[in-house]
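Q: Focus on the shape:
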Amino acid sequence: MSAAYPLRSLVLAGSLLAGLALAGCGEDQGEAVTVGLITKQEENPYWVEMREVAQETADDLDVELLTATGTSDTDVESQEAALDDMVEQGADGILIAPTDAEALSEAIGRAQDAGVRVIAVDTPTDPPELMDATFATDNERAGQLIGEYAAAKAEELGLDAQIVTLDLTPGVSTGEQRRAGFLSGFGVEEGDAAIVASVDTEGDRDNAAVAMTQVLSEHPDVNVVYTVNEPAALGALAALEEEGVDMDELVLVSVDGGCRAMREGVRPGLIDATAMQYPQNMAREGVRAVARAVRDGEEPTGYLDTGTLLVSDDPVEGVESRRVEFGVRTCWGS
C-alpha cells in the first residue's frame, strides 16, 4: 500500500492464527481501559469475526469493549454517530473501519481533540495521517496475488482474457487498492480492451449476483471474474451456475478467507483462488494497542500489515500459494 507510515508486518505462523497468548486472561490487569469498535455491517461474516475476536481479547485483558455497526459498507451516518457516542462514553481508543474517511474526518477529529486514539482497521485512509495508526491487510498486495494467479491460470487454459471486475464502491480504499493490485498482477491497465465490464457491488452477494447476470447478458464470453470480496464471489458464482457457464473454462478469484467461501467455493474448485486476510489479527492487535497505550504509555502509530496469503486447490507455476487444507484450518466465520 502507499501509506506514508513505516511498515510493520505481523508474522502469520503457528499459534498466531489461532490466537495470540495473552497473559493473565480474565484477571484485573491494572488501569481501567475502554475501547470502541465500529464496523461497517454484520451481513458479512468478516465483520462478525472482527467483533467477536475484539470481545474475546477485551475479556482477556480486562478491557471494556463498546461496539457499533452500520447497515452497509457505505453507511456513514451511523459511524459518525457511533464515534461521537463512544467519545461521550469515555473511550480511550476507537477502532474503526471507515466507510468514507473524508466524510468522517470531522468526527474523527472531534474524537482526537477529546484525547481519544483513533485506529483504522481493515480500511486505510488517505492521507493515512488522519488516523493515529492503521492495522490492515495490504490490499494492493492481496489484489496483486489474485491478479497474478488469474493471469497464469488464464494462460494455462489458453483463454483470450475477457475480464469483468465486481468492485466495491467509489472512494473506499480497500476496493480501490484491491482493484489496482489485481490489474497490475494480471498485467493490464485501466481502460484495457480485455476489461469488458466493471460493476460496483458494495461487496454484497445479492448485488453481485444481479450484476453478474447483467454482465453475462451483454458479454456472454466473459472468462475471468475478479471479485472484491467473497460475498461478491459467491453471488457471482450463483449467477454463473444459473446461466450454465462452464466453470472449467472460467477463472474466478477473490479476497477474504472466510470459511463459507473456502468450503463452498475454493475447496470444490469453483473459486479458483482467494487471498486470505485476517480480521482477527486487526481486532486483537487493535484492542491490545489501546490497552498498552493506557497502561504502559506505548502509543499506537504507523501501519501494521496484518497479513495475506493466496489459497488455491489448483496452484499455478510461478505464483506462491497454500492448499485449501490450510485455508480451511485458518479461515474465519461459520
Remarks:
- The first strand starts at residue 7 and ends at 9.
